[in-house]
């Protein structure tokens, strides 16, 4: 766990068919109207502040702060989108007072929703260690805990052995730091070549641990409940499933070894003083459009060009080769089901079909 801790995420994601966003952190609320002592205290912690823009002017101010935030001292977990919609930011130590005052000066009413993120991360780590130690594993794997990259990889190879008639390992690509990007294919019964292909992906943003955990749990259910629960059998039989639990393997590893709040890849590009690109702003589709930053130190940095990230290029090539019928990308936090595309508010043609699945 690194001392420098930042956050867990914001969404305005690019290439997503359906983007399920899950919350991982509980909220601790403080009363409005903070006294001097509290402000000094909060200025030394990593806090999360929520503010709801009540006018177009408020929204403009928040969008301005977001666009000019080159070093991500103010990290937008939930970006400014519309009047009445909450905007959540984590604030690195020393900027609380400034941000808080700026917002209040413009008539906004910020509230502290998480007082000490690092403390929460420490508690979460302890709970995970406890879960790993005491909760019995299903098929020697504990679906009730977070796992590092090595354990996730082992789990995939174990599944390929255990369910050898249905599961195969898929080598998708390689990361900037030369880690393999590995997924699973689940395919049951006959006529596999004619079945549509469905791609599920997690962990494109490194710190969103609940995303790989969700994909892993779903995969476990698809296999352990196959031929037991009809609904699951039907879903499994209908498609060839391509499942990539950890997309951003370098970033994910880094969250376990150095900085729990790392979000981007770990690539280095000439001329940039900061490491990494937001892989979900790096697809070659409407690259550079809204919701991404051209500032290399930003957490939403889009990269020097589309597909500058070998991971993104590699996964895109794989998907093109296999020809996917459907694609779901899992993120945190928020509870949202996002339809394509992230850069526009126009609804897709099959929007009603998507909604009918809920
Ligand atoms: Zn994300």
Automatic annotation (TrEMBL):
The residues forming the signal peptide are none
Entry protein name: Peptidase M14 domain-containing protein
In the record, what terms sit under GO molecular function? metallocarboxypeptidase activity; zinc ion binding
Function in brief:
Extracellular metalloprotease that contributes to pathogenicity.
Family label: Belongs to the peptidase M14 family.
A GO biological process of this protein is: proteolysis
For this UniProt record, give its keywords in alphabetical order, as a comma-separated list: Carboxypeptidase, Disulfide bond, Hydrolase, Metal-binding, Metalloprotease, Protease, Signal, Virulence, Zinc, Zymogen
| Pfam family name, one | Propep_M14
> Which PANTHER family does the record match to this protein?
PROTEASE FAMILY M14 CARBOXYPEPTIDASE A,B, SLL0236 PROTEIN
Superkingdom classification of source: Eukaryota
Question: Which cofactors does this protein require?
Answer: Zn(2+)
Q: Pinpoint the Peptidase M14 domain residues.
A: 145-358
Which GO cellular component terms, listed alphabetically, does the Swiss-Prot or TrEMBL entry include?
extracellular space
Note whether Disulfide bond occurs among the keywords. Answer: yes
């Amino acid at each position: 766990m690194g001392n420098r801790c930042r956050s867990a995420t914001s969404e305005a994601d690019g290439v997503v068919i359906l983007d399920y966003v899950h919350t991982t952190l509980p909220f601790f609320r403080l009363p409005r109207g903070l006294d001097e002592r509290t402000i000094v205290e909060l200025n030394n912690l990593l806090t999360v502040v929520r503010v709801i823009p009540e006018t177009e002017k408020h929204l403009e101010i928040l969008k301005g702060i977001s666009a000019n935030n080159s070093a991500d001292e103010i990290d937008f977990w939930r970006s400014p989108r519309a009047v009445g919609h909450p905007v959540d930011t984590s604030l690195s130590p020393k900027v609380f007072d400034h941000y808080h005052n700026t917002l209040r000066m413009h008539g906004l009413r910020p509230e502290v929703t998480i007082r000490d993120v690092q403390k929460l991360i420490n508690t979460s780590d302890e709970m995970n260690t406890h879960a790993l130690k005491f909760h019995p594993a299903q098929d020697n794997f504990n679906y009730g805990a977070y796992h590092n990259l090595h354990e996730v990889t082992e789990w995939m190879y174990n599944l390929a052995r255990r369910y050898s008639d249905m599961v195969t390992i898929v080598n998708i690509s390689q990361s900037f730091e030369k880690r393999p990007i590995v997924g699973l294919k689940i395919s049951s019964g006959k006529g596999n070549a004619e079945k549509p292909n469905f791609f599920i992906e997690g962990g494109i943003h490194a710190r969103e641990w609940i995303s790989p955990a969700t994909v892993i749990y779903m995969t476990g259910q698809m296999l352990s409940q196959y031929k037991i629960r009809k609904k699951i059998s039907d879903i499994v039989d209908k498609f060839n499933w391509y499942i990539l639990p950890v997309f951003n393997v370098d970033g994910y590893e880094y969250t376990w070894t150095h900085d729990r709040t790392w979000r981007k890849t770990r690539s280095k590009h000439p001329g940039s003083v900061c490491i990494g690109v937001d892989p979900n702003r790096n697809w070659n589709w409407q690259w550079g459009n809204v919701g991404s930053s051209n500032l290399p130190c930003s957490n939403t940095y889009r990269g020097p060009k589309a597909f500058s990230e070998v991971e993104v290029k590699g996964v895109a090539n794989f998907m093109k080769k296999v020809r996917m019928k459907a694609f779901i990308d899992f993120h945190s936090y928020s509870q949202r089901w996002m339809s394509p595309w992230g850069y526009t508010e126009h609804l897709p043609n099959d929007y009603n079909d998507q909604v009918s699945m809920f």
